Fold this protein.
Amino acid sequence: MGRRAGAPEVNAGSMADIAFLLLIFFLVTTTIETDAGLDRMLPPIEPPDTDVIIKQKNIFQVSINKNNQLLADDELTELKDLRAKAVAFLDNNGDGTCSFCKGAKDAESSDNPSKAIISLKNDRETKYSTYITVQNELVGAYNELRNRESMRLFNRPFVDLEADYLNPETDEDLKDELKEKVKRIQEMYPQKLSEAETSSN
Amino acid sequence: MMSKFNLGRNEESPEVSTASLPDIVFMLLFFFMTVTVMKDDSLKVVNELPNATEMKRLEKKDRIITIYIGKPQKKWEDIVGSEPKIQVDDKFIDVVEVGSFVLGRIASMPEGIRSYATVSLKVDKNANMGLISDVKQELRKVNALKINYTTLNGEILLNR
C-alpha cells in the first residue's frame, strides 16, 4: 500500500553527530608534524688519499669545553658574538681574489671564502644544547653571507630560494631555474664546516 | 502602524536550517584526517629538543630514520638506569647496535631513495656530546652521512 510512496527516507539527522564524533577523535590525535632541524653532512670515515695542507689562517677553530665555554680562534668568545666573528672570517678576502666580498682584507685571516674552513671541536661533556647553538650560529653566518649575495643578484634571500627548491610541491621548470641560482650562491660561499672528532681529556 | 510590524508574530519563528551542518563538519573532518600523522613511536626517553633558527624542513617522511637520545623517563629508570640512552622504534639500543639498525632501515627502503636516507637525531638538550659523538661515529662507519639535528624553532639564547 505504502509502496507507491517510494522508498522511505533514511533519517540523516544523526549524520552530524557521527561526523562530530570522528572530527573530535582526529582533533585529539592530531599532531601537526613540525620536523625541522639543522642539516649536516658527516665526514666519510676513510681518510682522504692525499693530505691537503691547509694554512692555519684559513681555519677558524671553534672549541667548546666541558663548561660550555667557547673558544673562537684562541679567544674566549660569547655565543652572541660568534656569528659576527664567523662572518668576518669568511668574508675576509685576504688575497683579494673574491670580487663580491666586503671583508677587511686582513692578511692574518682567511684568503677567500672557498678556502675558509670552520672547524668545530667539542668535549665529550659539552651540553648538546650549547653544541646546537654553536652549529646554529655558524650555519647562520653562512646564511647571512649567502642571503646578502642572493639579495644582490636575484633580489630574494637565499634561504627562500633554497626552501622553494627543496619543497616537493614546486614544479619542475621552476626547480631547474632555482637549482641554478642555489648552486651559484653555494659556490660563492661553500659551506666548509668540519666536525673534528671529540677530545676526551 | 504597529500592526505592520506585528504581522506574523503569531506564526512560529523560522528555524535556522541545519541541513548543511554535516557538510561543514565533514569538511573539517577531512581536513584533520589528511593532516593527521599517527605517532608511531612512544617515547621512553626525555626528549626536550633545543631551539634553533637556521633550520630546514625535513620533507618526505619515508626517507627519514629517527633516533632519540636522552635520559630514560622516570618509569624506565629502575630498569635501564639514569644515564642517557638511545631509543629507536620502541626499544633502547646500545651504541654498537646503531649501525646495524640504520643499515636495516635503509635496506627496507625502496632502492631509489636509499641514497637520500637522512638520520634525524632527536636529542634531549641536556644530553652530553659524548654519546652523540659515539652515535655519529657509528653512522660514519655504516656510511650514513646525511644527518639532521632536529630542533624546534625558537630563540637560541633560551637554550641554556
